[in-house]
Amino acid sequence: MSEAFMLAAMLVLVSMAAALLRAWRGPTSVDRIMAVQLVGTGMVGVAVALGAARNEAGMLDAALVATLLAAVAVSAFVRRPEGAATSHSKPNSPSLDR
């Protein structure tokens, strides 16, 4: 059964690599934050799968910490000032919030 958990962890790592590519390429800041959120979720999935495969409760604690860090990262993105995300944005560009 531990081989199945290890395989699941490897598949989640592959999806995390694809999410990192999306975070790198963009094209918008929303795409980037969603990719970073997927990486955070994948980190939790890998920690849970490895903890189950190795019967280590410490990996589940690491998954809990990663979940909290991912939530803080998303809330920091949501609460940032409007023009702080990109330095190349136009000063008179229309906003979606208006």
Terminal Cα separation, in Å? 53 Å
What summary fits the major beta sheet? Answer: none
Structural class: mainly alpha
Which word captures the global form? Answer: flat
CA gyration radius, whole angstroms: 17 Å
Q: Pick out the low-confidence regions.
A: none
The counted number of beta strands is 0
Quick check: average pLDDT?
80
Number of domains: 1
Portion in helices: over 70%
Beta-strand percentage range? under 5%
Order of H and E elements = HHH
Provide a count of the helices.
3
Please characterize this protein's 3D structure:
Helix content is 73%, strand content 0%. It has one domain (2-78). With 98 residues, it is mainly alpha-helical. The mean pLDDT is 80. The termini are far apart. Helix 1 (2-25) runs antiparallel to helix 2 (29-54) and helix 2 packs antiparallel against helix 3 (57-78). The chain has three helices and no strands. The relative contact order is 0.12.
In short:
The protein has 98 residues and is mostly helical.
Features:
98 residues, 3 helices, mainly alpha, 0% strand
Write the layout of secondary structure elements.
Layout: H1 2-25, H2 29-54, H3 57-78
Helix pairs in contact: 1-2, 2-3
